[in-house]
Structure formats: structure tokens, C-alpha cells
Amino acid sequence: MRYSFLVFENGSSYLCQMPMELTILGTSSATPTTTRHPSAQVLCIKNRLFMIDCGEGTQLQCMVHGVKFQRIERVFISHLHQDHYLGLLGIITTMNLNGRQEPFYIYGPKGLDEIMEVQFKWSSIVLNYALEFFELKDDGFQIIYDDEYLEVQSFPVKHRVPCWGFTFKEKSPFRNMKKGVAESKNIPIEAFKFLKSGEDYTSPDGVVFSFEELTELPKLSSYAYITDTIYLPELAPKLRGFDTIYHEATYLHDMLPKAEETFHSTAKQAAEFAAIAGCDTLILGHFSARYHEMGDHLLEATAVFKNTLIAEEGKSYAI
Amino acid sequence: MRYSFLVFENGSSYLCQMPMELTILGTSSATPTTTRHPSAQVLCIKNRLFMIDCGEGTQLQCMVHGVKFQRIERVFISHLHQDHYLGLLGIITTMNLNGRQEPFYIYGPKGLDEIMEVQFKWSSIVLNYALEFFELKDDGFQIIYDDEYLEVQSFPVKHRVPCWGFTFKEKSPFRNMKKGVAESKNIPIEAFKFLKSGEDYTSPDGVVFSFEELTELPKLSSYAYITDTIYLPELAPKLRGFDTIYHEATYLHDMLPKAEETFHSTAKQAAEFAAIAGCDTLILGHFSARYHEMGDHLLEATAVFKNTLIAEEGKSYAI
Asked: Class of the A7-172+218-316 domain?
């Protein structure tokens, strides 16, 4: 019941299987194809849903892949190119038609609020729920959301328009009991909640047991999202220790000049970034419409960073 | 070769089979479903493409159903609810990325230009082609486009925001030769072009043949598009003689109060409209997400107007 207050009442019974789970909804770059949609993904963190980018058609992608977008709590928009935000208004209006009442929080670049407001004005939409907009700041890593269980940061990347990446770090106000230790010392179960909260336990006969002896820090998941950007190796050390990094790989490396001209990255560069950062897993996405299948991206990246995955729409990845 | 100047050079070899052919891309109302997309359709008139409404995801629907949207000449937007225009910017930017140079003409309500401009501003898009916007007027039937071969009119309907219907009437500057008559009178082929243009022919021995005797008016197609609107029987007589009318049928008639409250129509009302107008064919669309299949809409409408069709996505209808 620890997280029960975080579960939306109007949501379905959908629960993600892992503490942090990423569902990919779109893997195309600027132009969609008949098999790839514009950028969008949903991060499920202890059954709270967070959306990252929201290209055209994302509401339908949610329906097709079983993501209950009515339950999305916050959305993070990287930049104001159409393939990253055009689906937002459709989701907002459909949530409204479906009776949403919980507030919806949007984190995005300056201008996204004006884009939304102009459309609300002309369509005479009055929402049943509060929409709160937070403007991203172009000044290094910024904590843009923080609570007991989660910290979200934004950081600028380099694209043709202002663009940001995001990090999601699971937090826990509680430590975990070390397996078998409490039992071996006859610590009563009633004492566990104090120990987990970082308080020592004194037994009825006056023996003090340190919480550090009996508990340990839990394994906490972390995820970084990086699109659209030119290769930024100087950023990678700042993401050291992250479990999973999603990095755009619009082109193969033989198209490096095109990547640089359009402020995008290649599969090889994404892999080099992951190698510097030392993450566990790299997920590649944001593929140019010129590529029909992603085998070459995988080959190119795994030559540099072995644990690389190709983002597949509708697939969920444990972080 | 009569219409060769109308065929876009950059288009594919796609040709519509009939003088006027309608391809349905979206049949849902406000909320899409996994099988129905927001409103959008393409009217092919002598191989020129015209789009009517452009809901979210229309560019992908074009790709899926083989409509070369790069060849679309003009788009007509009925109103500024999201399910009717959200796909427009995606199509505009993809056409740009794909090298469009021909101008693109948008006919829509006041405000659509501001919605586009705000987004161009924030995404720093500079188009390779001209975008021309024509604001619809709330004053009865208005000719909004006219050339030798086609006349398009807009007319206001009644919805929760300003909303328009559109009529498309094929025109021809030429008459057709009556079958066998010229041959029976030994009229030389060289005279045909004058006769078709409405000039009499005088034979070398001085006999005058009237163009009316030798030619006839061609059969010209006409189409009317009506969505989203409360039932407007007073409008129907103004559409008398149209071949095909597309009319929204958001609800079945047992939901008439809901239809009236939301300024929509029922299948029965759409059929009554078609019966008053006396069109050849009625196509129903814009179905509420509450309906999973449209058998009841068809039953309800055909009881009033026999030649009713249910709009099916990806299907083309000869007008």
C-alpha cells in the first residue's frame, strides 16, 4: 500500500511489472512511415505514468498499445519541432472528453504554452481539469520535478531550435531490510518501519541495533532521454551511473555530414555516448524515414557499445 | 491531353478512375478509436487532389492508403475543433521536407492562420513553398474557388464553433459530341473542337450545322460535404441535384437529445436531409467512438433514404 496514494483512481488495473518501465510509442524522426510513428514514449514509475514527447498520433498509439493515457500525470516535451509535440493537444482534448479531473502538468520549451493557448482560444475549449505549464530553462541541469519517490531533471542539448533532454531518477524515502539479518537477531516486525526510515532500534533489554546494520539502500532505477541533438560527448560524463539511456540515432555514421548539418546524431555516436556514460543499456530511436529496418544501426552501435537495443513501438523495456 | 496542365509534375502515376472520386481517410468524431481516425478525406477531380478536413494523423492515413499528399493542391477545413485540423501542420512540414515547391492553398475559419503562424514561429520553420490562406465567410453560399473545371463553395452550418460545409461542382468549358450524329452528317473531325466550344460549323458548301444539334452538355459530377452540424433541413433544398452528399451521423436517433446538445446529427436526420436534397447517394461519417460497428446507422438511414453508404477508411467512392 506504500504507493497507493499515487495510483490514479480513474485508471485501469494496468500495472507495470518493474519499478521503472519504458513503453515506446514512436521511433520515427521528422517524417513518419507506415511502420514508424513520431517520437513519444511513456515511462511507468511505480505505476505512475509520465509521457516524454508526444508526436502526432500519440493518443492513437496509446490506444493501440494499451497505454491508458488518462492516467498520465506529467508530460515532458523536448522541443518544438512538430514530430515531438503535435499529438499533445489531441491527448489533452480526449482526456477532457473522457472526464479527466486530475491536473495535467506540461514541461516544455517557451512557446508551447502560447501554441496551446491559441488553439484553446479558437476552438472554445474549456477544460474540466487544470493544465499547468512549466517552462524549461536553458541553464544546465535543472530539477524540474521532485517528490519522495522521483526526481526529474532537464538539461539542454544542441539542436536547430532550443531542445532539452530529461533524466528520471527513482528515489526512496525508505531503506530495505537486509535479507535474514533482522530474523537472526530476533528484531520484531514492528521495528522494521523505524529501521527502514533510518532510525536505530533499541530492544526491551536495552541493546541498540543500528539501522545501517539491519537495512540497506534499495536499488533505484534511472533513465535518461536524449533527442534531438548533435553528438555531445561532453554531456556523457554527467550521466554516469544511469541504468538506461535513450539516445537518438537519426542516421548511420556514413551520413555524418548530414547528421551534423541537421543537428542530429548517428548510431555510432549514440553508442560512443553510452560508452562514455557507462550506462547499462542504450536504446536507439528517432530513425530517419530513409531506413526501412534497423539492423545496420544495431550493428554499428554494438561494435562500440554491446548492450544496445533498437526501440520498437509497442514494446516495454524494464529500466 | 485536355487536362494535362492540371497534373502535378512531382506527383506519382496515381490517377483516379472516375472524373470525381472520394477517398475516405477518417470516420471518427472527436475521439479516435483503434479502427477509426479523425475526419479527413481526399477528393480527386480529374486527377487534381483536394483535401477536406485534416484530423490528427492524416499524413499517415495518406501513406497507409496510397494517397500522395504531396500532390494535394488545396485543403478545406470545416472548423477549428481538433479532430478536423490537427493533422494539417504535420502534412505541411512533411511536404516541405519532401521538397514541395508548388503553392498550397488553405481554406478555413478565421484563426487557423494564427494557429499555423504561432507554430511556424516557435519551430523556426521556413517553407520552400508558398502557403496561402483564405478565410471562410459566414454569409451564405460563397464561391471560394473557381476555374474552368471546378467550382467550390462554402456555406455555414450550425455547430458549437463557426463551421462550414463545402460543395464541389465539376465544370467543363467543352460540350461533348453526340454519339454518331457528326458521322451521319459527314462533319470533319477538324470541326469538332469548334463545335465542342459552342461554335456552329459551316460546311464548304455553305450548310450551317448548329453546335446544339451536334453536341450535348457533358455529365458533370457534384459533391457536398456537411460536418459537424445540428440537423439543418432548411439547407437541404439548396443542395438539390447534387450527386453525392457526405453528412455527419455522429449518433443514432435514440441519442437525439445528445446530438442536439452537442450540435451534431443522427443517422436518421442525415438520411432525411438526403431525401429532401434528392441526391443520388448519401455517405455517412463522423461516428461517435461509442459505436463499434455501423450496421445500426445503415439500417436507420436506409429506412429513410435507400442509397446510403457508410464511409469506410481507405475506400474510394466514385461520385
From this structure: alpha beta
